[in-house]
Specification:
The protein is mainly beta. Helix content is 2%, strand content 51%. Strand 34 (459-463) and strand 35 form a beta hairpin. The mean pLDDT is 91.
């Protein structure tokens, strides 16, 4: 029987992307015969010369397991195999391309990564509970690379308020934005002289005239109330700024007609006109002349399942969360195809053309989409200055509402709905009550049935095993939040926001954001907490048609939604044991 070789070497398992890996194989045989080696299997590019395996891991082969098998054969024909895996440390690449969608197409920009900042960084968990910070550097092509990151999950810290729990080697932090980016020029006083005809004479309450541009700005060079009996709108408006108004190429002129239709009181789009090939001059007087025309109308049977929205509010925090406002609009998102520039995480600043929306409590017509829907979690009572409408907490049928729609068929028609609630938190060891506003909102295609939540808030949230809604004093800075997925909808991930009670420069005491952490899991260990501090935590479930919180959290497609909860105040005692260090 042929002698069988015995391996006497231990495989090398350490490797790094782009660096030569080498392992010298040795084996012995009882008959002392010569041994030959063969690489039976291995990753692409691996070779064996004599008894030495060499390989240079590529980006795609790094941070994943790569299997090797070497076969040793004696001169008498006996053989044995040795199998092992190598998971090379690898480079994490961050792209952050902002794509601006314009009337004529798209343009993209890369970020400017500042070299003097400690981020972006990969924060890698260690066995002792600390986080190892791995730094990187910007590349000439606008990407950012962090080398030598081991496999597994880590915190990718884009900045202190953008941390993502991810295992990826390639992270897309780019986004899609509708409208032309603003550009600066020398400050000057620019005048817009507007005369527009073709308006439908308004009722006594007055309609609203609005001019929007293709700039990514809510600024309107002409807007105002249309007085009863007038079919012409005139305005002479001057503004001193460093905005380059010559970048504008397109104007959208619109009359919003104020109507009362059953339970609906608000504005619908009426006569409109689009002006192309605009040429404005900074520092001079620019004439805007137009003639509005009516367009065929669209009818929307609209109803809201207010009881379902009220039920969401009841479970979003300690005590008795109070719905304070609801808002909605139908609107057109221009230019963007295949993706969406509308998100439930920020206030829309680019052009978005309202089709209908209710009038708010002040009678002021805010720019679309509804201003309150930009609120996710905020500190302080909302609405400010009376913006927004009374909360819709009962099932309400608004009947069929007709509005004009003059925009190209390929543009997306969306419907945004939101509800804001105030949660009052008793400050520990104080008579002061702090108020947080928690938003629940969604953007969907134009509804074909009652508007009900497509995403609920997280269920049974816990902090270190106890209810998130019960105040607690902790003797450790090790804080773990966990929860169950929402009963409604399928989130693509969650954002955990940490608020810390701080004293400001003027001596005012209040809560301030101390970090935002995105995860696709239903449990998270919160880093960077300190003893002798008071914290509040929020958990916001996020839904989106294409977003991936571990790979590309800012790429969106409708439907999108968010639903939040907020904790009771948590005190970390003085002298509490430290669990995680930077």
């Amino acid at each position: 029987m042929p002698a069988t070789p015995t391996f006497t070497s231990t495989p090398v398992t350490a490797a790094e992307e782009g660096m030569m890996y080498s392992y010298q194989v040795t084996a012995t045989s009882s008959d002392m015969s010569a041994i030959t080696y063969e690489l039976s299997s291995g990753p692409a590019g691996a070779t064996l010369a004599g008894n030495t395996v060499t390989w240079t891991p590529t980006h795609g082969e790094s941070r994943v397991a790569n299997a090797f098998t070497v076969k040793a054969t004696t001169a008498s024909g006996g053989s044995a195999t040795q199998t092992w895996n190598v998971t090379p440390n690898g480079t994490v690449n961050i792209t952050a391309v902002t794509t601006y969608w314009l009337p004529e197409g798209t343009t993209s920009t890369h970020p400017t990564w500042q070299a003097n900042l400690p981020y972006p960084a990969a924060l890698v968990p260690q066995l002792d509970g600390t986080l190892q910070r791995l730094q990187g550097a910007a590349n000439a092509d606008g990407t950012f690379s962090i080398p030598n990151v081991p496999t597994g999950y880590y915190w990718l810290q884009i900045n202190p308020n953008a941390n993502f729990w991810t295992p990826t080697s390639d992270f897309d932090y780019g986004e899609d934005l509708a409208g032309r980016p603003l550009r600066a020029t020398a400050q000057s006083a620019t005048t817009f002289a507007t005369t527009v005809t073709g308006l439908v004479p308004s009722a006594s309450i007055g309609d609203y005239f609005l001019t929007l541009t293709d700039l990514r700005s809510p600024f309107s060079p002409a807007s105002g109330v249309v007085f009863s009996g007038s079919s012409t709108f005139t305005s002479n408006f001057s503004i001193t700024s460093d905005i380059d108004w010559s970048a504008i190429t397109t104007l959208y002129l619109s009359q919003y007609q104020h109507i009362s239709n059953g339970n609906f009181t608000g504005y619908v789009l009426g006569p409109s006109q689009t002006l192309s090939n605009i040429s404005f001059t900074d520092g001079g007087t620019n004439t805007i002349t137009g003639a509005l025309a009516p367009y065929s109308t669209v009818s929307l049977p609209l109803s809201v399942t207010g009881t379902a929205w009220a039920n969401l509010a009841a479970g979003m925090g300690p005590g008795n969360p109070t719905p304070v406002t609801s808002d909605f609009s139908a609107f057109v998102e221009p230019y963007v195809t295949g993706r969406s520039s509308t998100s439930n995480t920020t206030l829309q600043l680019g052009p978005a053309f309202t089709l209908l929306r209710p009038s708010d409590r002040t009678g002021f017509f805010p720019l679309p989409p509804p201003y309150p829907c930009g609120v996710a979690i905020s500190i302080g009572t909302f609405p400010a200055l009376g913006q927004g409408n009374p909360p819709i907490v009962t099932d309400t049928d608004y009947g069929t509402i007709a509005y004009s729609d003059p925009y190209p068929a390929e543009w997306q028609r969306n419907f945004q709905y939101c509800q804001l609630s105030n949660v009052n938190l008793q400050r520990p060891n104080s008579t002061v009550t702090d108020t947080f506003t928690v938003g629940t909102s969604q953007i969907t295609p134009i509804p074909k049935g009652p508007v009900a939540p497509i995403l609920g808030s997280v269920q049974s949230p816990l902090l270190n095993g106890s209810s998130l809604f019960s105040p607690a004093t902790l003797n450790t800075t090790s804080v773990t939040l966990n929860w169950n997925a929402p009963a409604i909808g399928q989130p693509f991930g969650y954002y955990v926001t940490v608020f810390q009670l701080v004293t400001g420069p003027t001596g005012t005491v209040g809560y301030a954001s101390a970090g935002v952490y995105g995860t696709g899991k239903t449990t998270v260990n919160i880093p960077f907490l300190s003893a002798n501090n008071i914290y509040v935590f929020s958990i916001t479930a996020m839904a989106d048609a294409i977003s991936n919180i571990e790979l590309a959290p800012l790429r969106h497609q409708v439907p999108t939604a968010r639903a939040g909860v907020i904790s009771a105040p948590m005190v970390i005692a003085a002298g509490a044991t430290a669990a995680v260090r930077r």
